[in-house]
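Internal ticket #5521
Category: modeling
Description: The requester needs a full-assembly model to guide mutagenesis choices. All entity lines are attached below as received. Residue total reported by intake: 860.
Assigned to: D.W.
Attached entities:
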Amino acid sequence: MKYEDILGNVTVLGAAGKMGSGILLLTAVEMADLSLKPENKDRNFILNAMDVSDSGLAGLMSYLRVQITKIAEKKTVALRSTYADRADLIENGEIIEQYVFDVMNIVRPTTGLHPAYKSNLIFEAVNENPELKVKIFKDIENNTKLSPWYFTNTSSVPIGSLDKKAELGGRILGFHFYNPPAVQKLVEVIATDETLPELKEFAATYAAKLRKVTVPSNDFAGFIGNGHFMRDALHGIEEAKKLGGELGFTGGVYTLNKVSQELLVRPMGIFQLIDYVGIDVCQYIMQVMNPHLDDEDLHSEILDLMIDQNVRGGQNSDGSQKDGFLKYEKGRPVAIYDPDKKGYVPIDDLKEKADEYLGSLPECIPAWKSVIREKGKEDILKGYFIALKRVSSNGSDLAVRYIERSKEIGKKLIADNVAANETDVNTVMLTGFFHAYGPINDFLNQG
Amino acid sequence: MKKLRKKVYMTAGYNTVSLGTGRKEFHPKKPRPGIEHYIKESGEGTLSQIGGGKNVDESVIGNFMAARFNNQANLPGFIPMIDKDLYGKPATSVEGACGSGGLALMAGIRSILAETADVVLTIGVEVQNTVKAIYGADILAGAGWYKERKKGHAYFFPGQFSDRAGAYFEKYGREGARKGLARWFRNAIENARLCPTAQEFHNRVEDLEALGLTEPNGKAFVDNLNVFDCSKVSDGASAIAIVSEEGLEKIGIDKKDAIEVVGWGQCEADITAPPEDLTKLSTIKIAAEEALSSAGITIDDLGTIETHDCFTIAGILAVEALGYTKPGEGADFVAEGNTARDGKIPMNTTGGLIGWGHPTGATGVHQAVTILEQLTGKAGDAQINIDPERPYGLTINMGGDDKTIVAIVYKRG
């Protein structure tokens, strides 16, 4: 089938979710752009937005409208050519409005699964629940007359196991967007030995049209991204726990969050990242990954404790951050959760003691926000890490241990044959997690 | 032009901040003052220097597109809001796209000459940040012929002047021309840094010419200009008092604190006709020549010029239209620093449209205020040396693509 034929009828499952809505948006725009080509004017393009939540779908349609408008505003120069033969569309405003309509007109919101029976391509972005995924795939398989392709957005469930259980015969591929899909450049592509070659070809074309960077990952629970993140998070949690005696749980969380953000020059601290992804999601991903790991136990009692106390993090439907390990005001952390007190302790109350514990730090710590834009980024980071290593303080020790552990995790992903090489690991962390540098580097081994 | 039947002066200038991207206090998502705020601030700024509204005989307000940017027409109605003593007196709104400010000045001048007024409060205003630039481009396209809009660029006017730049590149060489455009940009920003109301006052970029040389990207913007070649989207107003000799006495301002209007050229070109030669600003040339000849001077007598650089290429083409160089040599003339604040002929000494800002309907009045400040020694940090041998100042204000032109020659009163 041709690229246009496959995209003639597509379903996104879990379309109102955080990932699903982004996938739906990107796919809708791609399909609309195809539909607006003169040679496709007699073709139908249908994109089913399937979700169990009616209110979620209503929110999705509002989200689409806003986002498509922004996209149209950015490409109005090209859209004026697209609509050059429409004498009734004169002003940019009229052209933008028409484009928003044309994209939205492709999308069919639905709470039922039956529209998917006519789809050639199914994007699956439902909960990270392997049984649920298999159940849905089977339902479609039992009712469709086609042989649809399944692109799953799972970040942790092995693709091969889904293929086998749903009896898809290789018509499935891991196509793992990063959050939020509309912004993040990275897609992890996971093919199994059984995955049909035409799926891989289509995936490459589709990703390129969406201007995504693809990194191949082997079909191993967690793949590269979560393979690194989950272990990296456990390291942070364990280090925070160790500081408990001296600084208390909250002091430990504050300290490790600060070390992993500021001293490691990352976009956010590790506890903020766990909150961003969702404490429950992290716990769940570890549960999915753990049975597939022979030599380690990917599990955190602290995450369990937080969930037990119903502290979950994650985001509100408007994209704002829910409270988790940290409490947020206008997106900034202001307090740390104390499970003993079952409440939050203001950062101002524990900052002084924790900062004293960290001790002296290098004078010039580069800010993540500015260093990522610098052309001489490597040199700035090299100089900084040399200075960091030379300082003798608890802060320096914590940071150096963290950096070494992050590198070790990266190397393990290659040793375990999850990632093909160092570049792939680093690309995932650079583009999927917006790190300023890849975890596999020699910054600490020089000077 | 006939000999003036009496002397006309301008004094008591006032500029609001030119607000928009670049100003630290500007945030696109935060609420901003409306058009009435700018009218009031600028009006009061001038009235406070001339003894209040009771001394004003009539008012003129220049504005381009408040009807679309602000859903507001009938702007004369805002004049009595400035000062209750303006209630019951004449007020007029004039429009000629980005040349509206220049037309407002001309309307004021004519009222003095007609002897129907001795003191005219003249205001120019535009508040454009109410819509995103992509929609603002639709509104500003109204300065061109509406029948050309469909085939025009998404960014209509940048598209028009990109075509002019493209024609200039082709005829005279791209590399040298781009250097001239980049130098024009550098001068604009460096001058704006000396003027606290300028939109680029906070600009701290070190290598401005390198930035100015950024390659244009036709996919995202236009083919031959980058965003630094363009004036920004601005909110702002300027006001000035246009007065007779009797008027000066009435408001108690000494002639030396005023500038005298000694000549002008006001020219209109057919909006439905495309430019005959894209590499020439032919209407500006006619207006400038008329202004100089009516003042009885040549360009050698000019100490400073405020010219309408909505785009860097418009600055270069104005240099050529004025006769400082032969066609095709304006870019080199600018690149060599001749139009910088310490050059042969300092131009746009508070930043011009690119550096100070371009609240479209206000620009013509802002130009007059800058000349007033420079010729009366009140330009603050932006003050340039005015050679007593060359005491004249010139403003050139343009509406549309070389269509509605007002050029005025001034000297200190």
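Resolution: model delivered.
Comment from assignee: The interface with chain A takes residues 132, 134-135, 137-138, 141, 149-150, 153-155, 218-221 of chain B (CB under 8 Å).
Ticket closed.
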